[in-house]
Structures are given as structure tokens and as C-alpha cells.
Amino acid sequence: MNDRAISGLGMTVALVLGVFYTILSVFVWFLAVSLLGKTNAFPPLLPMVVTGVLVGLSNGYCKVRIRGEKRQILFSVGAGLIIALIWLLLYGFKASLTVKDVFGALITFPIIKLLSRNAMKDIPLSRTTKGHVELMVVKILRAFGLFFFTLIVVFPFYFMLATSLKSRAEYLMDPANLSVNLLQHPSKLFGGYIEVLFRFGFVRFIMNSAIVAALTVVITLIPSILGAYAVTRLRFRGRDLLSRLILLIYMFPAIVLVIPLYSVFTQAGLRDTRLGLLIIYAAMTIPVALYMLRSYFLTLPADLEEAGLIDGLSRLGVIIRITIPLAMPAIAAIGLYVFMIAWNEFLFAYMFLDTPEIFTLARGMVMLDDQEVPRQLLMAGAVIITVPIMVLFIRFQKHLVGGLTAGGVKG
User: Fold this and answer.
1) Higher pLDDT, 226 or 119
2) Cβ–Cβ under 8 Å, residues 116 and 19
3) Distance CA 310, CA 239 (A)
4) First-to-last C-alpha distance (Å) of the chain
5) Which residues constitute the domain of residue 97?
């Protein structure tokens, strides 16, 4: 068969791809229009079918008949213009056409075109085989799965952010409207955040959470590093038993420990204090930090530490000058992990803190969970408590994953 001729099987593959992207285009159009605030929107099916089929055929045609990246791009632009014209002919001249509809049409084609181009990348349509079809199906499912799961992860945060940027009147007028007017004055756009930060005292809560989380990291890492070194390098009676019992505290749910701890801390005068909260957080995080560091220390060569002892270093000197620098990736990852736990912890902060001046962010959020407080203020507080952790996690994601998994084979 001529390489420049599209085979029947190849065209069938392109049509199947077009049907899939018809379904995807319906979904993307509906999402785009809904986010722009058009409620009860229903996509025009006929233009969507045409869009999906043309995307599949245009990919097949570009793949076989058109050589060169620039020419394929020009053809794709032309196909996009044809699809836009069909949209206007079949749907656009109706009285119900709005700018949001046009935006939904324009955003649909590039997205499904990009996804379809990736799916067709290694598919020779002029000599398509069963293996090529299976590869295309796998790529399609992978792309759709990635798009879908990314959406369900991002959408709640977008809903929270969009709601927080509205005024009380806008929210009450249409709570389901997810559009945001970014052209309004900043004092009005960020009015919810200003009110939460200063009227409800969230600036103080942020400082309290940062102090508590940072001190928890320090209090947790020092005994965890020393304990992990002891159970991996020193020989003493009961070492194996201690290694197995490290995570024993995690056998008990936190809710079971609240009542006895509440009673003990009240009698000791530690309730409603930052010190009491630090003791609880350290008790929660030291076992898991010690266990993770133990697994990492087992992968470190003991010869370097023995050489340091021969050169005259003490055990503490070996830990500070040799062990800690070598284990810094794991220590940094565990420090970030402990910080996130202390920043987000709610149960003990809610039960043990009563004075607003020492509230953490999680405890302060309860003040916004009231019928008299507008929902957009609650969402603004949720954004404030979420964004710092999101930034830290995204910034140090590689270090976190690498540090927590290092030593997983040997430990």
C-alpha cells in the first residue's frame, strides 16, 4: 500500500479517535462554560460531534499526507477555522449565542487537539496494526485519566478560591456561579481576605501556627536523630524490641487519647498553652520520624563513622559531622512532613486551646464555621490555611518523596 494513501483501518482508527474526542469535547465545553458562570448550560451536540470527528480525521490526514511540523500546524489552524465556521453555521446564529459559548468552543478544540496529537504520535495510519490500535487506546485512557484526576483534585480548590473572591451579595445571588470578576477593585475583590485577616485575627493565628509548627520540627528531629542512630549503630539490651515498639503509639486513635490527656494536662496546668500543644505534637511525630530515620540510617555506610571515631571524634561529633550531613535529604523530608502535620492538626488544638490569642489556624477556622459568618469568609480562611502548605509541598515535592522512600528497600 502506498505510504501516502490512508488505509481503511487507519481511517477507522481516526474516526474512533474522533468519537472519543467528541465525548471529551462535550465535557470540556460544559466545564469551560460552567466556570464562566453560565448555569444550566447544555452543550450543542451536533457541533461537538463535528468537532470530535474532524479532530480525529485531521490528525489522521496530518499523520499520513502532510510532511513537516510547520505544515501540520498550518493545517491544524485551518481545520480549527473550519470547525469554528461550522459552529457558527449550526449554532452560532441563534439568539442564545453568547461570548461564553464562543469561549467554550474556542477552548475545546485546542485541548482535544493537543491530547489527540499525543495519542496519535506513534501511530502510522498508513499501515496501522492491532498493536498500534491498542497503543492508541492505552494513550487515550491515560490522557483521559490524567485529565480527569487532575480535575477532581484542582476543582475543589478552585471552588474554594472562586467563592472567597466574591462579595456577600454576589454569593447570595448565585452560589453555584464559579465565575470571578477580576476587573473589580482589589479592595472589593480581596475583601473577604482582608476581613478574615484583620477582623477575625488570622494574622495572629498564622504566626501562632508558624511558631508551633517550627518548634515541633525542632523538638521532633533532635530526639529522633539521636534515637534512630542509637537503634541502628549502638548495641544494647532490648534494642530489637525497642525498634519494633517505635510505632506502638499509632495503634491508638487520637480520639482515644484526647480524654486522658485532657485530664492530665488540666491538672498539670498545661492545657490552653503552647507548651502543652508542643508536647502532644512531639509525642505524635517522634515515633514516625524515628522510624523513618532508622530506615535511612541503615543504608548509610558505617565505615565512615568508624573512621571518624578512629580520628578522635566522639559519638556526638560523628553524628553532627558525618551522619547528619549524609542523612540531610531524609531529615529535610521528615522535617517538612512534621511541619505539615503540626500546621494542619485540628483535634488537639480544638480540645486544648481556649484563648483566642494562642489559637492556631486550624483552631481559628472554627470561628468562621458559623451561620452568621458568610460562606465566602470561611472559604477565604480555608485558602489561607491551605496555600502555605501547598507551596511548600510543590516546592519540595521531589525532596519529600525521595527522602521518605530512601532506605525503603533495606529498612
Assistant:
1) 226
2) no
3) 25
4) 58
5) 8-170
Q: Is residue 214 part of a domain?
A: yes
CA triplet 19, 32, 22: central angle to 5 degrees?
5
Q: Is residue 178 part of a domain?
A: no
- pLDDT computed for residue 147 by the predictor: 73
Q: What is the largest CA-CA distance in the chain?
A: 89
Q: What is the pTM of this model?
A: 0.70
Residues 143, 280, single domain; the answer is no
DSSP-derived secondary structure for 263-306: HHHHHHT-TTSHHHHHHHHHHHHHHHHHHHHHHHHTTS-HHHHH
pLDDT at 61: 56
| DSSP character string of 115-126 | HHHHHTTT--GG
Taking alpha carbons only, the member of 220, 222, 215 closest to residue 319 is: 222
For residue 252, being part of any structural domain is answered with yes
pLDDT band at 343 (very low <50, low <70, confident <90, very high): very high
Neighbours of 342 (CB within 10 A): 28
User: What are 76's three cell numbers?
Assistant: 491544524
Identify whether the C-beta of residue 6 lies closer than 8 Å to the C-beta of residue 66: no
Residue 316 lies in a domain: yes
For residue 63, CA distances in Å to 79, 83, 119, 126, 136 come to 14, 19, 12, 9, 14
- All residues at 6 or more sequence positions from 66 whose CB lies less than 8 Å from its CB, including other chains: 72, 75
Number of residues written out for the chain: 411
Residue 96 CB coordination number (10 Å): 8
Q: Which residue has the cell 496519535?
A: 120
Q: To the nearest 5 percent, what fractions of the chain are helix, strand and coil?
A: 75, 0, 25
Q: Which residue has the higher pLDDT, 280 or 186?
A: 280
Question: CB of 189 within 8 A of CB of 352?
Answer: no
How many CB atoms are located within 10 Å of the residue 118 CB? 13
Among 6-15, 114-123, 130-139, 215-224, name the one with the lowest average pLDDT.
6-15
Query: DSSP states of 228-260 as a string?
Result: HHHHHH---TTHHHHHHTGGGGGGS-HHHHHHH
